[in-house]
Structure formats: C-alpha cells, structure tokens
Amino acid sequence: MARGGTTSYAIRRMRTSKKADAEQWNERRRACAHALLNRPWVTKDSDAEMFYWIKDQYTELRDWFAEYTGFLLIMTRTMAKLDKSPLKAEPWMGMDGFREARDYALFAYALWFLEGKSELDQFVLTDIVEQVSEQMSAAGAPMDWENYQQRLSMVRALKKLRQLGVLVHIDGDETDWAHSGQKNVLYECEPSARYVLRHFPRDMRQYEEIEQFNELIVYPETAEGELRKRRHRVFRRLLLEPAVADRDWHPDDLYYVVTQRRTIIDNMQFMFGMEGTRYREGLYFFYPELSGECGLFPTAAGVSDLALLFAGELRRRLGSKDWFVTEQGTIELTRTDVEGVLYTLKQNYGEYWSKEHRMMGLGELADVLTLHMSEWGLGRWQDRSEDNGGERFVVSAVLSRWNADYSLDDEDMGAG
After folding, report:
1. DSSP 3-state helix, strand, coil percentages of the chain (rounded to 5)?
2. Considering the chain, what is the average pLDDT of its residues?
3. Percentage of the chain with pLDDT > 70?
4. Widest Cα–Cα separation across the chain
5. How far is CA 114 from CA 122, 161, 167, 172, in A?
6. Closest to 272 measured CA to CA, from 26, 12, 87, 73
7. Is-contact 81 166, C-beta < 8 A?
8. Omega of the bond leading into 86 within 30 degrees of 0 (cis)
9. What is the pLDDT of residues 191-226, one digit of tens each?
10. Is the pLDDT of residue 15 over 60?
C-alpha cells in the first residue's frame, strides 16, 4: 500500500505539473496575441522573450488569426508582425503627432525610399528629400521645401519612422533642418522598413474605391467564402473597435453575432482571455485585468473620470428630465443638455478635477468629453437637421454599464 500511495501521489503531482504547464502555455499564448494585436511588431532586439514565445506558438497563432480575422502573421529571423487592418477606419486610429494628410503621404514616400536600402546602409536626410520630391512631382503632388510647414511635415514623418525603429538616427537633428532647410541628418535603415505597410492581396491599381483597401484576402464567390468573409468582418471589428452595438452592425453581420455568440465568446476567451457578455443592446467584451497591452476604458486620463461621472448624472436625471431611452438604449442630448450636466458636475465635483479641466469653459469641456466618448464608442454626434432636430449627442447604452462618484474615506468623513 505504501508503494501504491507513492505511485498515486506521483500521478497526482504529474497531473498537477501538466495542468500548470498548460495554464502557463495558455497565458503565454494570450500574452503573444495581445502583443501582436496592440504593437506594430515584436522584435528580437527589443523583446527577446516575447519574440521567442511567439516563435514557439507560431503555428497556433497564425492559424487562429487566419481563420477568424484574415490577419497575416509574418515571422522573420528578427521580428514578428501581425498584418492587421480595421474594417472601419476611425479618426482616433491615426498616428499620434500627425496633423495633416501630407504627413501620411510623406511617411509613405519615405518608406518607399527605405525599401530600396539594405541593412546598415547609411544616407542623409537630403537624399530622402530629393528622391521623395521626384516621386511626388511625377505623381502630380510637388513639394515646396522653401515652405516651413511642408518641412515640418517631413520632420514629423521621419520622427515617426524613428519612433517605430525602422529609421536609425546616427547624427544631426531634423528640427535644425526644418528651421534652416540646410543642415543635414545621417541615418541607417533597419530591415523592418519593408514590413511597415501592410500586404494588399491585389495590385493597388485595381482598386477603384477607398473601401476596397480594407480587403485583406480575396474570398471565393461561394457560400463558404461569404461565411468566412462575414466571420472576418465580425472579429476584426470586435478586436479593433472598443464597442460595437447591435445598431452599428450590418444586418448580415448582426445575424452572425446573434447566432454565433457562444463561438465568438469562447474564441475571444481562448485567445485573449477577454470576457464577453450579451446585453439587450449588444455583445460586449471586457478585459478582466486592470491593465494590459490593449488600451482599456476607463483610461488613466482625467477625462475618463468625467465620462464616468457623466454616466452617473444621466442615470440620476432620467426620471426627472424629458430625456427618454430609445429602443436601442440610447439617450439623445442637445449641446445645451451636455453643458448643463457638466455644469452640475463642475459645481459638485470641480474641486477634485485637474486644473486643466477646472479652467475650461463648459463649451470646451463638452468638446473634450464628447470626443473622448466618441473615441471609445460611448456616444457620437448626429445631425438631425432634416427633422429640425439640430445636432444631438447620442449616448450609447454601453455607458449605462458604468457609474461613478467621489467618496470620502473614513478619516475625511470624521474630519467633516
């Protein structure tokens, strides 16, 4: 019996060890999936551990993203990149620091220049400027480098390439060139430069409408091809947009969301550890941890606190105002309504706000708040001029899932 007991203990220990290994493997897979989804790429130099985790689970990661999103997982000897693209482009998806469409054009042309360079090739800023100028002039969009604003656009594009790590700064400063147009900067090129722009399944000259650039792969014109295309549309939006209400889906996609919700929830849990819940107004996903690779709401910015306070005040006022909740669970507010709620919040809680928000007028505060809520899918401005309704801010039913207030701790209450 002693021998049998030892054997039983060894088996239990082995099972426990296997379970622990499986849990660790799942945690690593989810960490890899989040890193691929939320970073431009993962390089061996910057994060060797994550790079090798992705390499170890490459096949499973590649197959899942191909099956459910259509995203291509690229793996080289130095980097791993998920070639992803939103189904629906939003203003907040743009590059931080870029101010004009010209910044993006120069960014793309600078990448074209870098694709002709090999690793550790050295060149100067004026080389880029000269060749980009020739290409843009040939395309009917000449640059005037005597114009300071146009030089600043080039500086913003080059600094973004440096930030991404594809353009390595050796000597000099772009700002000096922007001010004088004379001083130079020395660079080297990283091999990742050719992977910045995503892969297109067709020759770009075949696209006739801007929406066609959202295409990831060419789908067969069969029932199976249409189902796969629909599945990719749904998962792309769920992964790259903060919240998608039922009213925001195409009818065909909504049918898939409703009928396949268990499969969707299970797959999001399996690959990302995200928890999905079906509410009356839509299917929403939440990240169980307080922080992670992905951007999470509420953010650390004070404007998220305002949004939560705004949600609580709306809840309190619903019974006493002539606002009503629509069938989709939304509330429509005029700009005056929004500013009125903010006035009350400022009177009650303004002393707890940042100096920046305390100093803002109600109109400016309303702009900041509604922009933040729009970026997180919590509301949007809608023009109702056709029915003499004017502009309305439509608050999403998602916001009703939050509430907030300022509470005092015991010491403060005793002092009060």
Report:
1. 55, 10, 30
2. 86
3. 90
4. 92
5. 11, 10, 8, 19
6. 26
7. no
8. no
9. 888 888 888 888 878 888 877 788 888 889 999 999
10. no
Question: How many residues would you count in the chain?
Answer: 416
Instruction: Please name the residue that has the structure tokens 């065909």.
Output: 252
What does the DSSP 8-state code read for residue 325? B
Both structure tokens of 384: 């109702």
Other C-beta atoms within 10 Å of 210: how many?
A: 8
Reported as a pLDDT band with limits 50, 70 and 90, residue 2 is: very low
Contact yes or no for 48/56 (Cβ under 8 A): no
Taking only the tens place, the pLDDT of each residue in 68-120 is 999 999 999 989 999 999 888 887 788 888 989 999 999 999 999 998 888 77
Asked if residue 357 lies in contact with residue 365, where contact means CB atoms within 8 angstroms, the answer is yes
| 3 state DSSP class of 159 | helix
Q: Where are the alpha helices (DSSP H) in 69-147?
A: 101-114, 125-138
Contacts 24+ apart (CB under 8 A), 55-64: 55/80, 56/28, 57/25, 57/28, 57/29, 57/32, 60/29, 61/29, 61/32, 61/33, 61/36, 64/33, 64/267, 64/271
- For 153-177, letters b (16+ CB in 10 Å) and e give bbbbbbebbeebbbbeeeeeebeeb
